[in-house]
Each structure stands twice: as structure tokens, then as C-alpha cells.
Design a protein that fits this description.
The complex is a heterodimer of chains A (316) and B (263). By secondary structure, chain A is mainly α. Chain A is built from 14 helices and 2 strands. Helix content of chain A is 66%, strand content 1%. A two-stranded antiparallel sheet of chain A has the order 1-2. In chain B, α3 crosses α9, α9 runs antiparallel to α12 and α11 runs antiparallel to α12. The chains are: A mainly alpha (316), B mainly alpha (263). The interface between A and B is large, with 123 and 122 residues.
Chain lengths: 316, 263
């Protein structure tokens, strides 16, 4: 971010259309050449052929009872959905996702704190930035064994607690159903605070220093200029991050499979990992597909909600 | 931003920042320290580096990442050019079709792709991983590149037309060379996403000789059982390329992620 050269940064999906109609467009001959479609072909082929094909296939599978191997699938209509809505584990995954989504609040608060700190020209700023941002580029698959070691009953965290005399707090973090989800939340905060930081850092760069200087002349303190100037001017970033957090909660998969495996006793199961277990591990393709369709519908609702809010706030 | 009038305030603030950064540093420290424990630094590293399959994992990840980047680049630049500069009926509809894929949780693809790959007998082939990863990358990279290409002046294309250039010539010789900055972001970002991907290879790469870097810790778990120092040593070794790439390409990665808040 040292270099302000702008890559167009539509922090979130923008509406298509407007851009292509630049003032000079009407002057050009309006003539559709068939070969122009050729430019859209590769991208559309790959997206339609993989993503939309998959959605269609899942929709079909969701009405079947099929083990993925036998030649015949049996049509069960809405049976799989009825099963899902009566499945306590399904509702548990939604509850876990809702709790998990709260990490975004912590990630935003920490990210904003560090962004403000690094904009205040503190010494060693680069070091802090690298430490915050490395987790974003490291794969959860690679860091997961480290977190299992940290939060193990005999792990390094309990070792530290013991050493500083807080042994009363020692706890089998991963083995206890009441803490396993919180461990995943901490891991997620570790992995993604760097992104919140980076977005806030970029956002603050856009705020004119003169505004803050003007505030100083009018007698603002650090606290008041942060609260009344910086915070409101970052409203676009707050919104982007909040939406990303919710979407991210529904996308969460890697850290769950790799750190808790959804357990113990399903205490950290997510919809994505439940689909994996039902479909890939237990070959109940129909039920897993019904769960996938529910996940899809939820994500579409979020996308619509997101577009609405952005339109209203004038970010679209 | 913040101003400190007294040295004490300045120091107190620095201490606060440092205290809050410690939890972020801690796992990295544990990671490195653990690789020194157990049978010790030399035994751990030589055991992991001596794994005959380790180079395979690297090669597989490289093949997949390079292919994903190449495919993503071609699809993205062509589509971005079309969306930004060509007049095509139903263009906006097609753009919405791409955008709609952005919030899709990849877990939705698991069952259909798994059964399709099963049917087609594509298990343990690179394509089974490359194509889905490309499809997941393209909507986002098109969004980035389209905005960028819209910013390039239409006059350039008009001038090229007058000089007798075909659309394709204009695309290759005028648009592409001007897309340097966004190309860097697209390449670095899609490379990173492909290299770090866990779910898709987990589904389709079951032969150890076809597995990728992110499957290495699980593979070593089955090899070394409970000797977690060796597994974490493997984590250190597999993190190094990414850390080096990050330190050299910081700007592009950060820019990509800032621009790519949609991920």
C-alpha cells in the first residue's frame, strides 16, 4: 500500500452496464459482429460448464435418493429437504455459522486499530504489517497442524498458562464441545484480520489529511477525531467487511476439516463440512445435494441483500 | 493520524500495539520452534526433505497453479475486453451470470463435481482440479479486469480501427500491453488461490503421487502418526515459498486483496 497507484478498487460487486457507455461510444458504428462473441466464449464456457452445470446437477440430485455409485437414483421429491429441516445437525450448523460470523466484529476492530496505528507513523510499522498479513497468504492447510498443537490439551497454550500461573484456565480446548467452535473463531481471526487491516489502511489513505488537521485546529483530540471523523468516513469499508464476514462464514471449510473435523460431537460442524460428510464420506448424494441447495439459496439471499444495501448507500 | 505530544504517550501506544500483535506472531513462532523439537532440527528437516514424494507435491502444485493462472488469464482478459469495449447483445445479462457466481460457497460444487469426476473417470487427473479452480477464479478476476479496461480510453481503439487494425489486433497489440498492473494482480492472486486451495484437491487427488502441497500435512500425518514435530516441519517447509513470494510481491498481493474484497 506504499504505492497509491490505483488499481480500480470496486470493493464490492458493481452493477454492470454503465461503464461501457463512454461518451465516444455512440460515434462508433453500432454493428454487432458475430466474432465478438468469441471473446466471451472461454470465460462463459468455464463458468457455465462448471459452476452452472454443478448447480443444475445438484438441483436434480436434491430430489433423488442416490449413493453416487449405483446406476439408479430413486426420485424422492422434496424428501431430502424435509429430512434436512427435521435434522438437528442441520440447524446446529446454521447456529454455529451465526456464532462464527461474529468473528468479523473482532477482525474489524483489530484491523481498524492496526490501520490507524500504522497511519500514525509508529516505528517498525513494516514489521507489524508483515506479521498481520502473513496469515492471509498462508494456507489454512499448512497452519492447521500448528493450531492443533497450540490448542491441544497438552499444547503450547496450556503450557504458557501453566508457566505464568494461570493453570486454573488450562483447558482441553479442542476436546471440549463447548470450546471447539471458539478455537475455530480465533483461528479465523488470526487468518483474516490482515485483510480487514489492509482494507482499512487503504480506506484511511483516501481520507484527506486536511480534514483531520482542520479538526485539530477546532480542538479535536485523538479520540474525538477518530470517532467523529475517521470512523464515519470509513462507512463503505465497514459495510464491505461486514458482508464479507457473513459470506466468509458460509464459505468456511478448510479450518474446520483440518482442525476440529467438525467435532467433538458435531460441536463445530458447518453446513459446508456437513455436506462433505454426507456426500463425499457417506455417499448420500441426494441429501448432500439438498443441503447444498439450501446453502446456495442462503448465499443468493446474502448477495441480494448486499446489492440492496450498496444501492441505497450509493456504492453500486 | 493519531498524535502524541509526550514521549510517554508515544511509548505507551507502541507497547499497546506490540501487545496486540503478539497473538498474531505467536503461531508463527510456535511453528518454527516446533520444527526444532522432537528428534531435533536436523532429524526433522532431513526426514521431511528426504521424503521421496515431497518434490512430487511441489511439482503437482506448480503444474496446477501455472495452468490455473494461464487459463484464468486468457479467459479474464478476453472477457474483460468484451465486457468493457465491445457491443454485444445480452452483454449485461452475461456479466450478471458471472457475478452471481461470486458469493457461491465452493462447498456447493462438491457433490456434483465429485459424482461427475467419478463418472468420467477423471480421478487423479490434473484437469479435475484445474478446471474447477479456474471457474472459481474467473468471475472475480473478470470483475477486476473489466473495471480496469473500462478506464482505458476508447480513442485508442478508434485510432487502431482507422489504421486498419482488426478487433483482435487491437486487443492483442493495444489493450493487453496497457493492462500490466491489473495483469500482475490477476496472476499473483490466482496463483496464490490455486496454490493454497485445499478442498478441491482433497476431493479429486487421492493417489499420493498426484497430491499437492496443501495435502502434505495430512499425508505426513499418516506417515509419521503422532510425531507432530515432523508434520509441523513440513508446514514450515511448505510455507517458505509463499512467504518468499509474499515478501517479493507484497504490493501486488495486497493490491489484489484490497481490490478483491469480494473473495
Amino acid at each position: 500500500m506504499s504505492d497509491p497507484q490505483p488499481v480500480p478498487a470496486p470493493a464490492v460487486v458493481t452493477a454492470p452496464g454503465g461503464g461501457a457507455r463512454t461518451p465516444s461510444a455512440p460515434r462508433r458504428a453500432v454493428r454487432t459482429v458475430m466474432t465478438d462473441y468469441f471473446y466471451l466464449l472461454p470465460a462463459m464456457a468455464v463458468v457455465l460448464g462448471i459452476i452452472y452445470y454443478s448447480i443444475g446437477y445438484t438441483a436434480w440430485l436434491s430430489a433423488q435418493d442416490w449413493d453416487g455409485l449405483s446406476p439408479d437414483a430413486r426420485f424422492v421429491g422434496a424428501g431430502n429437504f424435509v429430512q434436512a429441516f427435521g435434522d438437528p445437525m442441520f440447524w446446529a450448523t446454521l447456529r454455529h455459522t451465526a456464532i462464527f460470523a461474529l468473528v468479523i466484529v473482532v477482525q474489524m476492530a483489530l484491523g481498524l486499530f492496526f490501520a490507524v496505528a500504522l497511519h500514525s507513523r509508529i516505528p517498525f510499522g513494516v514489521v507489524y504489517k508483515v506479521i498481520l498479513f502473513l496469515p492471509v497468504v498462508l494456507s489454512p492447510a499448512v497452519t492447521a497442524p500448528v493450531f492443533r498443537r497450540i490448542f491441544d490439551a497438552n499444547g503450547t497454550l496450556n503450557g504458557v498458562l501453566d508457566a505464568v500461573g494461570l493453570d486454573a484456565l488450562m483447558h482441553p480446548w479442542l476436546a471440549d464441545p463447548s470450546t471447539s467452535l471458539y478455537v475455530l473463531m480465533l483461528v479465523n481471526i488470526w487468518h483474516w484480520t490482515g485483510l480487514s487491516f489492509m482494507l482499512y489502511f487503504a480506506g484511511i489513505t483516501q481520507i484527506d489529511d486536511d480534514v483531520i488537521e482542520a479538526g485539530r485546529i477546532d480542538g479535536t483530540t485523538n479520540a474525538t477525531s477518530f470517532w467523529f471523523i475517521v470512523l464515519p468516513m470509513l462507512s463503505g469499508t465497514h459495510l464491505t467487511l461486514a458482508i464479507l464476514g457473513v459470506i466468509g462464514a458460509f464459505k468456511t471449510f478448510d479450518i474446520v476439516v483440518l482442525i476440529t473435523g467438525g467435532g467433538p460431537a458435531g460441536s463445530s460442524e458447518f453446513l459446508s463440512t456437513y455436506i462433505y460428510k454426507q456426500g463425499i464420506l457417506q455417499f448420500d448424494m441426494g441429501y448432500a445435494s439438498a443441503l447444498s441447495i439450501i446453502l446456495l439459496v442462503i448465499s443468493i439471499c446474502i448477495a441480494i441483500f448486499q446489492t440492496r444495501i450498496q444501492r441505497r448507500k450509493g456504492h453500486a | 493520524m493519531l498524535e502524541f505530544r509526550t514521549p510517554a504517550g508515544r511509548i505507551a501506544f507502541q507497547v499497546l500495539v506490540t501487545l496486540l500483535i503478539v497473538p498474531f506472531l505467536y503461531p508463527l513462532v510456535v511453528m518454527v520452534m516446533t520444527s526444532f523439537k522432537g528428534q531435533g532440527f536436523v532429524a526433522n528437516y532431513s526426514a521431511v526433505l528426504g521424503q521421496p514424494l515431497l518434490p512430487r507435491f511441489f511439482v503437482n502444485s506448480t503444474i496446477i497453479s501455472v495452468a490455473v493462472v494461464a487459463l484464468t488469464y486468457v479467459c479474464t482478459m478476453m472477457a474483460a475486453f468484451a465486457f468493457a469495449k465491445l457491443r454485444i447483445p445480452w452483454k449485461n445479462l452475461m456479466f450478471y451470470v458471472l457475478l452471481a457466481a461470486l458469493t457461491l460457497p465452493p462447498a456447493v460444487l462438491m457433490v456434483p463435481l465429485f459424482t461427475t469426476v467419478l463418472k468420467l473417470g477423471l480421478f487423479d487427473t490434473y484437469w479435475a482440479v484445474i478446471l474447477p479452480l479456474t471457474a472459481l477464479a474467473v468471475p472475480f478476476t473478470v470483475l477486476l479486469a473489466r473495471t480496469y479496461v473500462i478506464g482505458l480510453p476508447d480513442e485508442l481503439l478508434d485510432a487502431a480501427k482507422i489504421d486498419g487494425a482488426t478487433t483482435f489486433q487491437a486487443f492483442v497489440m493495444i489493450i493487453l500491453p496497457l493492462c500490466g498492473p491489473i495483469t500482475a494482480v490477476i496472476v499473483v492472486w490466482s496463483m496464490l488461490a490455486a496454490w493454497n486451495e485445499y478442498m478441491i484437491p482433497l476431493l479429486f487427488m487421492q493417489d499420493p503421487a498426484k497430491q499437492v502441497i496443501t495435502q502434505l500435512p495430512s499425508y505426513f500425518l499418516s506417515e509419521y502418526g503422532s510425531d507432530e514435530t515432523k508434520i509441523i516441519t513440513a508446514s514450515v517447509i511448505t510455507s517458505l515459498p509463499i512467504i518468499i513470494v509474499y515478501l517479493f510481491l507484497q504490493r501486488f498481493i495486497e493490491r489484489g486483496l484490497t481490490a478483491g474484497a469480494v473473495k
